Amino acid sequence: MISWILIIIGEILIAIGAICDLIAAIGMNRFPNFFVRLHALTVGTIGGAFVPLIGVAILVLGAEFLGVYRFFMAGASIVSALLLLFLAPVGSHAIARAAHRSKAATVHPKVVDRLEEDRERGAVK
Predict the structure, then answer these.
(1) Residue 90 · residue 46 · CB < 8 Å
(2) Domain that holds residue 51
(3) What is the model's pTM?
(4) Could you check whether the bond before residue 89 is cis, i.e. omega within 30 degrees of 0?
(5) Cα 45-89-8 angle, rounded to 5 deg
(6) pLDDT per position as a tens digit, 46-66
(7) Is residue 122 left, alpha or beta, with left meaning phi > 0 and alpha meaning psi from -120 to 50?
(8) Suppose 52 and one of 17, 34, 67, 117 were both cysteines; which one would form an S-S bond, judging by CB atoms 3.0 to 4.6 Å apart?
(9) Number of independent structural domains in the chain
(10) 42 in Cβ contact with 88 (< 8 Å)
């Protein structure tokens, strides 16, 4: 009984991840500039990869036919999900900062640009 509950919860999390990937793809097509599109990519990475990896770990724990290998698969999924959770935002922040500093991507429409204000004051190089 508990294995079916784990399988259903895992499948729900995988479906949520697919929906997050679809939303991120729509955001990539609809958003106006590089930085907002980068936000959509990060949402797609976290929601579309982290959540399904946790879902796979839960689903595998409920799959008793895998025997002892299910624990290895669940552990690998959880470790991969945690690495992704920590490294994806850092990578997107580094890409956004590099694009802003090199002026490769224009910010339009721009309301406030604190990084540019700090650069003009000489606080940031």
Answers:
(1) no
(2) 2-121
(3) 0.81
(4) no
(5) 35
(6) 999 999 999 999 999 999 898
(7) left
(8) 17
(9) 1
(10) yes
